[in-house]
Design goal:
Elements lengths: L3 H12 L4 H26 L3 H13 L7 H16 L3 E14 L3 E7 L3 E3 L1 E3 L11 E8 L2 H6 L1 H4 L3 E4 L6 H17 L4 E5 L25 E4 L1 H12 L5 E6 L2 E15 L4 E11 L9 H21 L5 E8 L7 H9 L7 E6 L7 E7 L2 H11 L9 E4 L9 H5 L4 E6 L4 H4 L12 H20 L8
Parallel strand pairs: 5-6, 6-7, 7-8, 11-12, 11-13, 13-16, 14-15
Antiparallel strand pairs: 1-10, 2-3, 2-9, 4-8, 5-9, 10-12, 14-16
The structure holds zinc ion.
The site of zinc ion has 5 residues, from helix 9.
C-alpha cells in the first residue's frame, strides 16, 4: 500500500499538464524507435524460445516455495543460463526469507454425512492440535454477517463463503478472515477459495494474523465444497468438520534475488529494472504465477543483447524471491540499492500472467506517462498499446521502489483466466500459450529498451 502522503503527491503530479517540449519529445519518440521496436517484436515472436525456457524451468524444478530447495535449485540454474546468455553482472543478491511448510493436512466433513473436503491450508497458518479440530461450522457471507452473528461463532469453525468479485476485495477474507473469526471466538477459519472459476480446486495464498487475537488454523475450501456447506446450513442440517493441519513456521533461510544486466552504453549507472517473482506457492508449477513473468523479463533482455540493441542506460532484470510470503525480495532489493534509487529510471514487473498482453499500468508523473504512452504505441502490431495511468504501484515487488519515488509499470494482459489457476494445482505451463508468452516478451522488451534509451530520461515530476 502507498502512504497517503505519496498518493497526494502523485495526485498533484497528475494534475500538472506536460510541457510543450515534452509533448514534442513524446511525439518524436515513436518515429525514432520504430525500427528498434519492430526488430525486438520480430525477434520475440518468430519462435517459441521463451515458452520453451519457461517449460524447462517449471518442468525441471517444479514449484518454488520460499525456503524450499527447489527454489534455490531453480535460481542456481537461472544464474548459469544467464551467464551462458552473455548477460553481465549476473548474481544472486542475498535475501532472508520466510520459511513456512504446510505439512499433512485434511478437512473431513463429519456431519451431516462423511466426506472428504478439498482444501489447502493458507500460507502462514498455524497447525491444529495433532488430533485436529472437530467443530460445528458457521457459514457467513461477509465480515458484516459475522459481526451480526458473533454470538453464534464461539467455539465453531467459521467459514467465509464469499463469491469472487475482484481480487483485492475477495482476498481480504483470506488475509483478514482468520483474525476476524478468532475475535468472534472461533476455533478455526475456512474460506471459499479466492477463485473466479473452479473444478473443485482449492486455492491457497497468504494469510496474516492480527497480533491482538489468538492465531487459529486457517484453510481454503474449494468453491464447490464451501457452497455445499452453505446449502447444508440453510437446510438446517448440522455441519461438523474435522480440520487437521501440520503447518509449521520454520526459521528464516537465505534465498536470493536473481540480478543480471545489459550495461548501458552512455549512462551505465542509470537503470531500468524489469522482472517478475521467481518464488511460487507449493502447488502446481507456479508457471502462470510467476515463472512466466520472470522468464518474459529475462528473455526481453536476452533479445536486446542478441540483437546488439544496447540502450543508453542499463537494463537490469530482477527476479525477486519470496513475493508470496511477504515481498521479502522486493524490500531487500530496495534496501540493497537504496543509495541508487535516484538513478532508477523505471521499474517494470509482470505478475498478472503472461497471457495476451493489452498494455501497461503506469505510476509516475504526467510528463513521464506521456512518454510511456508513446512507447506503448509502438506495440500496435501485437495489440498491446493501452496505458492506464494509476496512482498506486501496479505490482507487489516494485511497490517498495514506487514508494521511494521510482516510476513503476506493470504489464497488463487479458486476465479473464488468471484467477482460474492462481495459487492452485492447476497453475501449470500448459495454461499459457507460446504466442502470447512471446508477445509479452516483446512488450516488455520494447518498453524497457525505449525508456532506457530516451535521451532526456523519464521525468519524475
Ligand atoms: Zn505472483
Amino acid at each position: 500500500m502507498i502512504q497517503p502522503r505519496l498518493r497526494l503527491l502523485l495526485g498533484l503530479a497528475l494534475a500538472v499538464a506536460p510541457s510543450a517540449s515534452l509533448h514534442a519529445q513524446a511525439s518524436g519518440l515513436a518515429g525514432t524507435y520504430r525500427a528498434a521496436a519492430d526488430s525486438l517484436i520480430h525477434a520475440a515472436t518468430r519462435d517459441s524460445a521463451a515458452y520453451g525456457r519457461l517449460a524447462r524451468l517449471v518442468d525441471g524444478f517444479g514449484h518454488r516455495e520460499s525456503g524450499s530447495r527447489s527454489l534455490e535449485a531453480a535460481i542456481d540454474w537461472i544464474l548459469s543460463e544467464m551467464k551462458r546468455d552473455g548477460l553481465q553482472n549476473v548474481r544472486g543478491e542475498p535475501v532472508q526469507v520466510t520459511h513456512w511448510v504446510r505439512g499433512m493436512e485434511s478437512a473431513v466433513l463429519a456431519k451431516p454425512r462423511l466426506d472428504t473436503l478439498h482444501m489447502l491450508g493458507l500460507g502462514g497458518s498455524v497447525a491444529t492440535p495433532t488430533g485436529g479440530i472437530t467443530a460445528t461450522v458457521l457459514v457467513v457471507s461477509s465480515f458484516d454477517e459475522l459481526e451480526r452473528r458473533k454470538a453464534e461463532a464461539r467455539g465453531k469453525i467459521v467459514l467465509f463463503d464469499v463469491p469472487f468479485t475482484d481480487y483485492e476485495a475477495t482476498r481480504r477474507y483470506r488475509t483478514d478472515g482468520p483474525s476476524a473469526a478468532a475475535r468472534a471466538g472461533a476455533v478455526a477459519c475456512l474460506i471459499r477459495s479466492v477463485a473466479s472459476f473452479s473444478i473443485r480446486s482449492p486455492h491457497t495464498g497468504r494469510t496474516t494474523y492480527d497480533s491482538t487475537v489468538a492465531r487459529i488454523p486457517a484453510a481454503a475450501l474449494s468453491v464447490e465444497d464451501a457452497m455445499m456447506l452453505r446449502r447444508m446450513q440453510e437446510r438446517g442440517e448440522p455441519v461438523v468438520v474435522t480440520l487437521k493441519m501440520g503447518a509449521r513456521q520454520l526459521a528464516p533461510v537465505q534465498s536470493r534475488n536473481v540480478v543480471a544486466e545489459l550495461v548501458g552504453r552512455e549512462k551505465p549507472d542509470e537503470v531500468v529494472v524489469l522482472g517478475g517473482h521467481i518464488d511460487s506457492w507449493d502447488v502446481g508449477q507456479g508457471a502462470v504465477d510467476d515463472a512466466g513473468g520472470s522468464v518474459a523479463a529475462w528473455e526481453a533482455v536476452r533479445l536486446m543483447k542478441q540483437l546488439g540493441l544496447r540502450p543508453r542506460r542499463t537494463v537490469r532484470v530482477v527476479l525477486w524471491t519470496n513475493e508470496e510470503s511477504g515481498v521479502d525480495g522486493g524490500r531487500a532489493y530496495r534496501d540493497a540499492h537504496r543509495a541508487d534509487l535516484g538513478r532508477h529510471v523505471m521499474a517494470m514487473e509482470s505478475d498478472g500472467g503472461v497471457f495476451q498482453p493489452t498494455g501497461f499500468a503506469f505510476v509516475g508523473s504526467d510528463t513521464a506517462a506521456a512518454l510511456v504512452r508513446e512507447t506503448a504505441s509502438l506495440l500496435g502490431s501485437i495489440s498491446a498499446t493501452a496505458l492506464a495511468h494509476v496512482a498506486e504501484s501496479p505490482e507487489a515487488d516494485i511497490g517498495p521502489l514506487v514508494e521511494e519515488g521510482v516510476p513503476g509499470i506493470g504489464l497488463r494482459v487479458e486476465d479473464s483466466r488468471y484467477f482460474w489457476y492462481h495459487h492452485s494445482q492447476g497453475d501449470t505451463v500448459d495454461k499459457l500459450d507460446p504466442e502470447e508468452v512471446a508477445r509479452c516478451v516483446a512488450a516488455m522488451a520494447v518498453m524497457a529498451y525505449v525508456i532506457a534509451d530516451l535521451p532526456g530520461g523519464l521525468p519524475r515530476s
